[in-house]
Amino acid sequence: MLKIDNLHVRVAGKEILKGLSLEVKAGEMHALMGPNGAGKSTLGNVLAGREGYEVTAGTVEYDGRDLLALEPEQRAAEGVFLAFQYPVEIPGVNNTYFLRAALNAQRRHRGEAELDSMQFLKRVREKLAVLHLKDELLHRAVNEGFSGGEKKRNEIFQMALLEPRLAILDETDSGLDIDALKMVADGVNAMRDPARAFLVVTHYQRLLDYIVPDVVHVLAEGRIVESGDKSLALKLEEHGYAGIAGRQVSPHAGAGAA
Amino acid sequence: MASALLESLLGADAPVPPSASPALARVRADAAAKLRRDGLPGPRDERWKYTGLRALEQRAYVDGDCGAGHRAVDPSAYLLPGVDGPRLVFVNGVHRADLSDLRASPGLEIVRLGAEPQLFADALADASTADAFSLLNTALATDGMLLRVAAGAQLAEPLHLVCVGAAAEADIAWQLRLRVEIGNGGALRMIEHHLATDAHAHLGNVVADYRLGDDARLDLVQLQDAAEGAALVRRSRARLGHAARLRMHTVELGAQFMRHELDVALAGRGARFESHGVFALHGRQHADTRMQVVHDARDTECDIVWRGVADQRSRGVFHGAITVAAGADGADARLSNKNLLLSAQAEIDTQPVLEIHADEVKAAHGATVGQLDERALFYLRSRGLPLDLARRMLVSAFCGAVMAELEPVELRARIDALIAARLPQAEAAS
User: Fold this and answer.
1) pLDDT at position B267, please?
2) Cβ–Cβ gap B384/A76 under 8 Å
3) Confidence of residue A256 (pLDDT cuts 50, 70, 90)
4) What is the complex's ipTM, to 2 decimals?
5) B330: alpha, beta or left, given left = phi > 0 and alpha = psi -120 to 50?
6) What is the rounded average pLDDT for all residues in chain B?
7) A79-83, A85-89, B110-114, B272-276: least confidently modelled range
């Protein structure tokens, strides 16, 4: 589904990703771990199409297409979703209005019928329940005045509503207490599906107790330096990222590792 | 007079408006003489620093629209949801009784100044500042309205004042004079509504005086959606008595050239003025709002919150001056003006000015000019919203924030929709 090959990315003139390669197949749950500054968030932003990230070499294929050639909204409509590390507060834009407009824009793009407000609300109610989010959040402006935990749960709620095929979760666990973490994990696990893939970016192993990955990658200095099964995350927890420093870099880490 | 504008309207060949009384004729002649002598303000006039009059001055107009009485106007053009009280309609500055609704409203007296020369002369002579456009108005206005709200009368229904611009055989210069007096403890809601039925390039010139007695209240909505080719100059003056309250919502959307001067005198103790406004410009529109608020009494309050959006090659000017006079202790003055530039060719000039001569005063002011928040834009797009829709959503939210308290809700919804319809489509910021 997603095939990243030798990706080099510069941000503000500085090379952050230095030959990252990674393959994620439909139905798989991949975890991307690594120390601060390794380039984890950069990868999420590049995949979602944020401006200011200059791809200097390499390719990203999504369903056999060049993902990097698509606008952010086209990527979304094609099923790519990024749960933001820092969800943006947008005063004055009503959450419900925004989500319905977004969902219907995606549906139009895919040639599907738009949902009317009754159909939309029915869908919203189903998904809210999974995330234990209050109805009241819908009536507020996007993320405005949300607590840190509410923002993160709102990201997962949006994911549930938009039903992407490739979901990238950028440190969704950071700043969450254990209850919120479990809700987020429940939301993610409820969406696991043979047709859907996840790339979970995290700093800590803790999240992976609740969302069990098929493959774990370690990102350091802009490259995948090691890939393995879920036991790799436990090893990291024990030895820290320093333990993997200096290891041989596999040229095609992740490919078929599951 | 090197001005085609003044030449066409006040020159030797220009007809003198008929005057029913010597007093009226004298006031008009004085104003015309002064204007002929001084001309329109030049580029060195600080008050017109950001709004040049050269282009306007080179245009010739016909004074008044003699055909205004029979121009076809579809009322659906000006009907507003939630606004179904008395209605005063002017077409190219001429009162149209056939389109108006002067139903009997207890406590409200409506006097047509064109039929009351003495009152008209008084209203015209009462111009405390004699700027060029007020003089032009005084010299040429043949009609106007005096609205009186009796002391203690709280009018339930909003008064809808409609100024329609309609295409005529030539470019018309029209004048309108308005005077609103609210007696002690009286309350009025009013909508001043400018719109066009079709394309034209008229010059409209409105002078409005608002007198609020003690404990009086005026809720004024100004919705300006004039023709894209039109020039519109408005001067609003308000004087507030003890504990009087003036609340304004102003929306500037139309006209090629727009200048609005708003002078507010907080003359009575505890008087309070609130102004929420927004301008949204595109094309080559030029809109200049100039506010001057004077705190002349103790414990007076003013709260000015304005937002501006300029796209393409448009230019917005906002000047917000607040003066707290000596002795006006306990004054509380706030001014916030935030602006969005949507194109590299657009320009917004904002000037907040605070002048404080009293000792115990609370005052805050801030002005910003920026661009759309790229992070917010990316967030919306990452959820599937096309760029143009995401941009419009953000700009709508930016403008809508200042209209949040406008009532009734149906009117606010209509105004939000009008603003949204005027906002830029897909042009990317560069």
Assistant:
1) 98
2) yes
3) very low
4) 0.93
5) left
6) 92
7) B110-114
Residue of A86, A90, A146 best to disrupt the B interface, most CBs of B under 10 A: A90
- Taking CA–CA distances from B401, the nearest residue in chain A reads A92
Sign of CA dihedral B56, B57, B61, B64: positive
- DSSP letter string over A28-40? -EEEEE--TTSSH
Instruction: Assign domain A28-41+71-217+225-237 to its CATH superfamily.
Output: P-loop containing nucleotide triphosphate hydrolases (3.40.50.300)
Q: Which of A232, A208, A206 is nearest to A219 (CA)?
A: A232
Q: Which two tokens stand for residue B173?
A: 């210069």
Sketch the domain layout of chain A as residue ranges.
Answer: 28-41+71-217+225-237
A-chain CB neighbours of B394 within 8 Å are: 90, 93
Class of residue A130 by CB neighbours under 10 A (exposed 0-12, middle 13-18, buried 19+): middle
Q: What is the pLDDT of residues B314-325, one digit of tens each?
A: 999 999 999 999
3-class secondary-structure state, position A87:
coil
Contact A76 B390 (CB under 8 A): no
Question: Which residues does chain B have within 8 Å of residue A77's beta carbon, measured at their own beta carbons?
Answer: 384
CA–CA gap between residue B264 and residue B297 (Å, rounded): 13
Query: Residue type for A107, please?
Result: R
Element (H, E) at B395: helix B387-400
B36 touches chain A (CB under 8 A): no
**For B373, nearest residue in chain A (alpha carbons):** A90
With contacts defined as CB-CB under 8 Å, which chain B residues touch A115? none
Q: What percent of chain A has pLDDT over 70?
A: 94
Yes or no, beta carbons of B386 and A82 under 8 Å apart: no
- Choose among B382, B394, B400: nearest Cβ to A76: B382
To the nearest whole Å, the CA of A93 is away from the closest chain B CA by 6
